[in-house]
Design the sequence.
């Protein structure tokens, strides 16, 4: 496998799993959990789900920029050789990373603490904040994928 093929593969897989995980959590797991679980069980579930998913996101927020810049400089000759779609993808990707960092260090940290102390009102408030951030990041991620897939043809 060439280095370009490896970079593209790592980049695409990282984006697919991160955005796919958000899609699953937001569109599938969230409504089922809300309909079937009482708040303490639902909040414990989400704290556990995020605790399992977020280490993967840490990997993705490292792999995505590294592989993206690897491709940018090895395939496109740097920023000047990249099309507008690459710059859009880069900007939105960094925004997604910044939103994730806030989500992880603020509402997720507070959600874990609230679940441990069984402060269900506070946990619900933090989960609602996380839901909003995941919804925004999911929307951005879908735009990034659309731009990546079809951007050069727009």
Sequence:
């Amino acid at each position: 496998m060439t280095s370009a093929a490896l970079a593209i593969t790592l980049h695409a897989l990282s984006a697919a799993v991160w955005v796919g995980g958000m899609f699953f959590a937001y569109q599938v797991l969230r409504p089922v959990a809300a309909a079937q679980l009482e708040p303490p069980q639902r909040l414990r579930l989400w704290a556990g789900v995020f605790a399992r998913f977020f280490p993967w996101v840490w990997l993705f927020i490292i792999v995505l920029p590294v592989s993206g810049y690897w491709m940018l400089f090895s395939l496109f000759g740097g920023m000047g050789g990249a099309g507008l779609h690459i710059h859009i993808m880069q900007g939105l990707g960094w925004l997604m990373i910044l939103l994730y960092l806030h989500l992880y260090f603020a509402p997720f940290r507070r959600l874990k603490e609230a679940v441990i102390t069984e402060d269900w009102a506070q946990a619900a408030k933090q989960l609602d904040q996380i839901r909003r951030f995941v919804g925004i990041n999911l929307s951005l991620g879908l735009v990034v994928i659309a731009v990546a897939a079809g951007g050069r043809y727009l």
